[in-house]
């Protein structure tokens, strides 16, 4: 058997097994050494491939798609620094628990460490950020090599998905010639009735005696809190709100918890806890007896202050599989169980509620804060908070928001009030970086449904290469760019007090005409003035086909003052309510 046939059958069996294990989408970064993988994937009838030229953009595109689909997505690139450009997204995928299957092409062993072009050390390139790494054998078909290829493909998909999902990395050395021959008979090989490693994955569920122990611990308390941080389980919202209602316990719901939107009851949901907890004196007044947290740590920094200041309070953190996400450093009891099933099991055991006055206190404070936050301003200028408020008023049902970091996610936290609309909120909160945000939003848009990408001007600039995906693949996406001409979040930090270096090092104004960017990538551009015009622009964008960019220009100083005024008004009102 010649080299081309061995290359073709080996690669085709591997690729076919990816599909056999349920993988449906592959993002390809063009290159020469990856030709066997790229062409075979493009040829496979069950796989959809997405070509994204910039490797860093491609990796974040895959990340956004995997987040939206809640399913593993594969990546393919050539050898050399192409693979290194996947690194930022690999880090984000690891920390935000997103399943990616990264397939890097490599020089064969005899060309490694010889000065050959595009030959770098790709062995364990991503270090501990890959859940599993394997350096694949050179393509062969003798003996068990085709079952070897299938076994590694099956294991890769399963490992990416199991327990805490995350990225895996397989490195493929290929010798030239690189072109596969798809005219071969039975090119896809012998797929079994089941995947090579059939995987029956159950949910972790506490035993009855464990549930009883928790119940007896909590029965001695009166004032409990349920805190829901970023998570993506679509069944969780109904289960946790039913539990909280039965217990008469408030839920502090992060905007990425998927609890503020949807058809479930929200009577016990406290959306404005970030604003409420900005006051140190109010944080002291609201001392709980215990805290149960589901999901990652919330976005809110005031909540972090709150748990640190009440570090002696018993805290329980629920993780679906494993992990120690407790950045406050408090003594914590970890509960390893599927969050949705845990809520259902606890609700079925409930025979008494906690202190209803405690819940009522939180509800009254929440209503006071919301009244001020939703109060219209008598100015024509649109602040950053108002831009987010306008978006939430008009965003379609059954759609998604992909939100950037820094100010964007914090304004969403502040202004995203409970709604019966089905609105999923996604973000890259694993490493909290601004890189790759445009590409991540594009990947989510490629997955399904209407997507609105909400981000600042620096995040937009940082990943403008990602806009090509909308043009190339005909994606429908609305991008709301809140442009304060620089790093607005730094105005809220101590660095703002050092005026001599602030603008150059932190403010970093861009002075870019984003209208020209929209034209470059074939998008529709709007720059509305005023809230009514912004709502109209957003509504029109949802009926457009393709890329829509809406730019709202704001002033960093005015935005800082506006936020501080709002927070002070709310603190004064909350103090007045207590008197």
UniProtKB/TrEMBL annotation:
Reaction equations catalysed: isochorismate + 2-oxoglutarate + H(+) = 5-enolpyruvoyl-6-hydroxy-2-succinyl-cyclohex-3-ene-1-carboxylate + CO2
Record-annotated Thiamine pyrophosphate enzyme N-terminal TPP-binding domain positions: 13-124
InterPro entries membership: DHS-like_NAD/FAD-binding_dom (IPR029035), MenaQ_synth_MenD (IPR004433), MenD_middle (IPR032264), THDP-binding (IPR029061), Thiamin_PyroP_enz_TPP-bd_dom (IPR012001), TPP_enzyme_TPP-bd (IPR011766)
UniProt pathway annotation: Quinol/quinone metabolism; 1,4-dihydroxy-2-naphthoate biosynthesis; 1,4-dihydroxy-2-naphthoate from chorismate: step 2/7; Quinol/quinone metabolism; menaquinone biosynthesis
Source organism superkingdom: Bacteria
Enzyme class: transferase
GO molecular function: 2-succinyl-5-enolpyruvyl-6-hydroxy-3-cyclohexene-1-carboxylic-acid synthase activity; magnesium ion binding; manganese ion binding; thiamine pyrophosphate binding
Keyword list, A-Z: Magnesium, Manganese, Menaquinone biosynthesis, Metal-binding, Thiamine pyrophosphate, Transferase
Any single biological process term in GO: menaquinone biosynthetic process
E.C. numbers: 2.2.1.9
Metal-binding among keywords: yes
Domain Thiamine pyrophosphate enzyme TPP-binding: 438-552
Co-factor note (free text): Binds 1 thiamine pyrophosphate per subunit.
Cofactor: Mg(2+); Mn(2+); thiamine diphosphate
Keyword Transit peptide on entry: no
Domain Menaquinone biosynthesis protein MenD middle: 215-402
Entry's family note: Belongs to the TPP enzyme family. MenD subfamily.
Subunit structure: Homodimer.
Function: Catalyzes the thiamine diphosphate-dependent decarboxylation of 2-oxoglutarate and the subsequent addition of the resulting succinic semialdehyde-thiamine pyrophosphate anion to isochorismate to yield 2-succinyl-5-enolpyruvyl-6-hydroxy-3-cyclohexene-1-carboxylate (SEPHCHC).
NCBIfam families from the UniProt entry: menD (TIGR00173)
PANTHER family: 2-SUCCINYL-5-ENOLPYRUVYL-6-HYDROXY-3-CYCLOHEXENE-1-CARBOXYLATE SYNTHASE, PROTEIN PHYLLO, CHLOROPLASTIC
Protein name (Swiss-Prot/TrEMBL): 2-succinyl-5-enolpyruvyl-6-hydroxy-3-cyclohexene-1-carboxylate synthase
């Amino acid at each position: 058997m010649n080299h081309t046939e061995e290359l073709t059958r080996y690669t085709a069996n591997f690729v076919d097994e990816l599909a056999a294990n349920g993988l449906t989408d592959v993002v390809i970064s063009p290159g020469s050494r990856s030709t066997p993988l790229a062409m075979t994937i493009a040829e496979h009838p069950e796989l959809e491939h997405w070509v994204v030229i910039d490797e860093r953009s491609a990796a974040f595109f895959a990340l956004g798609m995997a987040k939206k689909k809640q399913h593993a997505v594969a990546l393919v690139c050539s050898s050399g620094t192409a693979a290194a450009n996947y690194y930022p997204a690999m880090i984000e995928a690891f920390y935000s628990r997103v399943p990616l299957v990264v397939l890097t092409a490599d020089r064969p062993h005899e060309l490694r460490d010889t000065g050959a072009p595009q030959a770098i050390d790709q062995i364990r390139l991503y270090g501990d950020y890959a859940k599993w790494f394997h350096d694949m054998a050179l393509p062969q078909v003798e003996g068990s090599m085709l079952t070897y290829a299938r076994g590694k493909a099956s294991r890769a998909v399963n490992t990416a998905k199991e327990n805490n999902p995350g990225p895996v990395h397989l490195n493929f050395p290929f010798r030239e010639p690189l072109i596969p021959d798809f005219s071969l008979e039975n090119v896809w090989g012998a797929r079994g009735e089941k995947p090579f490693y059939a995987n029956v994955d159950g949910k972790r569920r506490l035993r009855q005696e464990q549930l009883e122990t928790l119940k007896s611990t909590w029965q001695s308390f009166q004032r409990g809190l349920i805190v829901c941080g970023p998570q993506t389980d679509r069944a969780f919202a109904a289960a946790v709100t039913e539990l909280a209602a039965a217990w008469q316990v408030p839920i502090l719901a992060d905007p990425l918890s998927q609890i503020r939107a949807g058809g479930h009851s929200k009577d016990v949901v406290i959306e404005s806890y970030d604003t409420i907890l900005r006051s140190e004196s109010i944080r002291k007044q609201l001392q709980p007896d215990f805290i149960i947290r589901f999901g990652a740590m919330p976005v809110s920094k005031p909540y972090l202050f709150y748990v640190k200041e009440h570090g002696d309070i018993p805290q329980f953190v629920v993780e679906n599989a494993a992990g120690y996400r407790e950045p406050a450093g408090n003594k914590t009891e970890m509960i390893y169980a599927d969050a949705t099933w845990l809520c259902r099991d606890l609700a079925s055991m409930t025979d008494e509620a906690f202190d209803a006055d405690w819940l009522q206190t939180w509800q009254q404070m929440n209503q006071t804060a919301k009244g001020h936050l939703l109060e219209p301003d008598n100015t024509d200028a649109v602040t950053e908070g108002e831009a987010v408020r306008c978006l939430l008023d008009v965003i379609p049902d059954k759609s998604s928001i992909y939100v950037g970091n820094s100010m964007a996610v914090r304004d969403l936290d502040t202004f995203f009030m409970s709604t019966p609309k089905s609105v999923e909120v996604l973000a890259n909160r694993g490493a909290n970086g601004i890189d790759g945000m445009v590409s991540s939003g594009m990947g989510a848009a490629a997955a399904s449904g209407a997507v609105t990408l909400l981000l600042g001007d620096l995040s937009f600039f940082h990943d403008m290469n990602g806009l090509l995906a909308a043009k190339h693949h005909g994606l429908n996406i609305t991008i709301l760019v809140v442009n304060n001409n620089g790093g607005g979040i730094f105005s809220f930090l101590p660095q703002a007090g050092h005026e001599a270096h602030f603008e150059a090092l932190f403010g970093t104004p861009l002075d870019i005409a984003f209208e020209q960017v929209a034209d470059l990538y074939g998008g529709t551009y709007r720059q509305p003035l005023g809230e009514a015009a912004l709502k109209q622009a957003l509504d029109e964008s949802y009926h457009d086909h393709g890329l829509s960019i809406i730019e709202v220009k704001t002033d960093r100083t005015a935005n800082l003052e506006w936020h501080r005024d709002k927070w002070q008004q709310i603190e004064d009102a909350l103090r007045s309510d207590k008197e």
